[in-house]
């Protein structure tokens, strides 16, 4: 059973067969995956034993689950006699790739047990086993996130980013810091960030990959500057120029043709300061009456395409 911090059940599983199945040790790794070790006498339903080991003898049973409750794999460990774990301390996890089992056995040279001795049913023997956490290769580190590094959230309330996969990548995690900058929707090799209203500043976006061996290292972070303002898609309208910028007096807007264009000047909150129709390729704008700060010039061409340019007024 897995619960949240308040004790509400997130998911539950019934595991075992038609005979005795006893849990001994439960371990989670740094990826949140769950490893369950126990002893079983079953050989049906959920229990898959080693080939040739069917019967009522004890066998060690190992299962691995994703934190979401999906099984990754299971396996039986032992031979054709009794092999079992005594207590929770019988399983040691090195924190990386291997488990060490301190088990009891009265099996001789059968299945996983390679020890050979004169069998005496009156005695049990110590069996030390080392198990790799996974058979896969470690997950490679994906490529650094790619996408817009300057975001104006009034124009672009959400932004999509992407990564290039590396070797042995199964799935991906994304992380945004600080978390109050926005909310991530994980799309695998892509992530969509919905920016939080009112947030201005810097954010770091990184990703990591996962496979049965666990997580890769995080990618190098992509540094993103966020402003709650109207922004400019780059190179949307070829030949468009605005100078000087920053400005303190007259500015010149060079348009790619004679138009007609609709020009709108907005302040950082989106409020319209002025608007005009332009039919020439060169427009001059007197900014002497404007307060210092950032403004947006919105340009709509004859086809209805909108481009926005940031204008900074310095005093």
Could you walk me through the main structural features you see in this protein, from its secondary elements to its overall organization?
There is one protein chain. By secondary structure, this protein is mostly beta strands. Strands 11, 13, 16, 17 and 18 form a 5-stranded mixed sheet that branches. A 4-stranded antiparallel sheet has the order 3-4-5-6, with no helix packed on it. Strands 7, 8, 9 and 10 form a 4-stranded antiparallel sheet that branches. Strand 3 and strand 4 form a beta hairpin.
Protein topology:
Blueprint: E1 2-3, E2 9-11, E3 21-28, E4 34-40, E5 59-65, E6 71-77, E7 83-85, E8 91-93, E9 98-105, E10 125-132, E11 150-152, E12 158-162, E13 171-177, E14 182-186, E15 190-195, E16 201-211, E17 214-215, E18 222-227, E19 241-243, E20 250-254, E21 261-267, E22 272-278, E23 282-286, E24 293-300, E25 306-313
């Amino acid at each position: 059973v897995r619960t949240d911090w308040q004790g509400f059940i997130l998911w539950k599983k019934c595991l075992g067969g038609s005979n005795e199945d006893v849990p001994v040790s439960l371990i989670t790794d740094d990826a949140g995956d769950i490893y369950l070790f126990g002893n079983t006498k079953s050989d049906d339903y959920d229990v898959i034993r080693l080939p040739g080991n069917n019967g009522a003898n004890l066998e060690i049973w190992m299962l691995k689950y994703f934190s979401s409750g999906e099984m990754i794999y299971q396996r039986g460990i032992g031979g054709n006699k009794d092999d079992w774990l005594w207590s929770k301390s019988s399983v040691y996890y090195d924190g990386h790739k291997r488990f060490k089992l301190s088990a009891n056995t009265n099996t001789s040279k059968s299945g996983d047990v390679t020890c050979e001795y004169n069998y005496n049913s009156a005695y049990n023997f110590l069996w030390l086993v080392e198990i790799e956490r996974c058979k896969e290769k470690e997950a490679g580190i994906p490529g650094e996130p790619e996408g817009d590094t300057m975001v104006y959230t009034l124009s672009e309330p959400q932004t999509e980013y992407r990564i290039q996969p590396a070797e042995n990548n199964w799935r991906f995690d994304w992380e945004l810091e600080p978390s109050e900058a926005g909310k991530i929707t994980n799309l695998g090799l892509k992530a969509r960030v919905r920016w939080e209203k009112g947030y201005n500043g810097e954010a770091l976006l990184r990703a990591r990959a996962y496979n049965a061996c666990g997580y890769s290292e995080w990618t190098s972070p992509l540094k993103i500057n966020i402003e709650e303002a109207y922004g400019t898609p780059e190179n949307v309208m070829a030949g468009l120029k605005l100078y000087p910028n920053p400005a303190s007096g007259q500015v010149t807007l060079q348009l790619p043709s004679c138009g007609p264009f609709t020009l709108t000047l907005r302040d950082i909150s989106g409020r319209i300061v002025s608007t005009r129709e332009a039919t020439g390729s060169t427009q001059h704008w007197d900014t002497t009456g404007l307060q210092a700060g950032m403004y947006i010039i919105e340009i709509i061409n004859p086809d209805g395409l909108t481009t926005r340019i940031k204008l900074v007024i310095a005093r």
